[in-house]
Amino acid sequence: MRMLVFDDDDAIGRLVVRVATASRMEAMAVSDADAFNQCLQTDPPQVVVLDLQLGGTDGVEQMRLLANQQYTGALVLISGYDARVLATAQSVGTSLGLKVECVLEKPLRVAELGEVFERLLFADQTLSTERLLTAIVDDELVLEFQPIVSREPKTLKKLEALVRWEHPVLGLIPPGRFLPAAESDTATIDALTDWVTGAAVDAYQVLAELGVTVPLAVNVSMLNLHDLTFPDRIGQRLRAGGMPAKHLCLEITEGGVFNDVARTMDILSRIRLKGMQLSIDDFGTGYSSLRMLRQMPFSEIKIDQSFVSDVTTSRDSRAIVKSIVGLAANMEMTCIAEGVETEETAKLLEELGVCNLQGYLIARPMPVEAVPAWLATWTGSTLDGQAMRPSGDPAAIRGHGEVRHPPSVSVTAETSGDVVQLSPRQLEVMQLLSEGCPVKVIAHRLNLGIGTVKVHLSLAYSALGAHNRIEAIRRAGPALAGNSNKA
After folding, report:
1. Residue 338 β-bridge partners
2. Which residues are CB-neighbours of 398 under 8 A, at least 6 positions away?
3. 350 and 479 belong to one structural domain
4. Whole-number Å distance between alpha carbons of 435 and 446
């Protein structure tokens, strides 16, 4: 791992290099802006240690340089200034799209430096692009879903798909830790986005079988917008999975950089023409907000949680939110507030005109199979075998598209004699499982995603009251035998 240190104090530069070398990194230090710029171009580092107060320049100016050169590695900021300046500088780096690993106050402590470098080295070894590609192929990734709702009346508007990495050693890894690696390589971010899109289509099928048909949102990196065939790939996956294009919304982070405006407009326009929706995510945190809205065919604005979190206490944040709401209304776009965590915040947002809310106040991200139970609880509904209905409302829940349960199959568990309900798809999956087929083979035979097969198995196990494969097959034995004879 290569490190580049920029500090106009040669003694500090030598100290950081010595600690990095002890951590088995390849490191060098420079003390002027020209040398820093030359090193970035000739031998790009994976880690930059940057002082904020420099001779003829400053750290903020150099962060702009890093952003313009599309630096995707880790950034460690150091300074002798007070904590407020450091916090602001960190926010500037984040808004520029840089991965600010940490901010260290001077005088530097060798032990603290060593811990930071060891952590970066470990992350580089375990969360590399090569390892992430392997994780995609081996299906180590999973999706969780967070609801986007309106509360008057209570309506589930959408579910945002959020990717996690089930690392066999590190456990469940949030996207913030592996997305920098993905975005450092075009092939990797394309593979990740293709996987997430495919998994979302599979989840749409599962939700439909569970009785919920609702639009899904998927995050897309600006770096995906290099390939003119991108809209065609998504459209083909939607058709193969039987998911209407209007039920997919692609969320694109506003802080991304347009390298080729004409190409980006081409791709995004074709996405809209195919019937999909486009959302500008984290709105207000970058520098290209209004230009993006004017040039690109977005249908939705998501207000960044940095404005939402203190909207009840900050006059500036309230003014910004109010301006965004007015902008969205005038441009005939939907407006969503993300990061809603308190009832006070939700009520104020609704008073300001933001009716679509997302955040922990509504629900934390959840597995796809948990969505129906959450929805029934949140709406005060019950499952009556035909539809989920709000209390006192004779009509099915509105705003969900078609909300119904597919025909189920009654199965008499062999050991208990209890009658349980399995969907036809769950029965198909269990049938192949009983024939000794592994999950990957079942997915291939039924033209499903591996994650979808796992969800169906989990639901079948739960219905049968089984804790493992052998127990589930034994309990469903008579029904599986009957289904096999019919086949």
Report:
1. 358
2. 153, 155
3. no
4. 14
Q: What is the CATH number of the domain that holds 284?
A: 3.20.20.450
Q: Which residues of the chain have pLDDT under 70?
A: 122-126, 169-170, 254-259, 284-289, 381-420, 467, 478-487
Angle of CA points 473, 475, 477, to nearest 5°: 60
Residue 394 domain flag: no
CATH number, residue 471: 1.10.10.10
Q: Is the same domain home to 102 and 221?
A: no
What is the torsional sign of CA 312, 314, 315, 318?
negative
Same domain, 186 and 310: yes
How many independent structural domains does the chain possess?
Answer: 3
Cα gap 297→249, rounded to integer Å: 13
Closest by CA to 267, choosing from 222, 228, 220, is 228
Specify the pLDDT at position 410: 54
Phi-psi region of 236 (alpha: psi -120 to 50; beta: other; left: phi over 0): alpha
Q: Are residues 171 and 197 in the same domain?
A: yes
Residues 109 and 225 in one domain: no
Give residue 400's pLDDT: 42
Alpha helical stretches, state H, 97-139: 110-126, 129-137
Q: Cα(79)–Cα(108) distance, rounded to whole angstroms?
A: 9
Is-contact 129 111, C-beta < 8 A?
A: no
Q: Is the peptide bond before 174 cis (omega within 30 degrees of 0)?
A: no
Whether the CA torsion 295, 298, 299, 305 is positive or negative: it is: negative
Q: What is the pLDDT of residue 402?
A: 39
Which residue in 330, 328, 335, 264 sits closest to 296, CA to CA?
Answer: 264
Residue 417 has a pLDDT of 52
Count Cβ atoms below 10 Å from residue 335 Cβ, excluding itself. Answer: 23
User: Is residue 20 exposed (0-12), middle (13-18) or buried (19+ Cβ within 10 Å)?
Assistant: buried
Task: Look at residue 263 and give its three-state secondary structure.
Answer: helix
Residues 12, 111, single domain; the answer is yes
According to the model, what pLDDT value does residue 430 have?
84
- Phi first, then psi, for residue 137 (nearest 5°) are -65, -40
Cβ neighbourhood burial of 178 (10 Å; 0-12, 13-18, 19+): buried
End position of a domain, from candidates 379, 398, 418:
379
Range of the domain at 47: 2-126
Q: 3-state class of 225 per DSSP?
A: coil
First to last CA, the chain: 57
Is the same domain home to 222 and 335?
A: yes
CA dihedral (256, 261, 263, 265) positive or negative: positive
CATH code of the domain containing 77: 3.40.50.2300
Q: With contact defined as beta carbons under 8 Å apart, do 192 and 133 qualify?
A: no
Q: Are residues 346 and 457 in the same domain?
A: no
Q: What is the pTM of this model?
A: 0.65
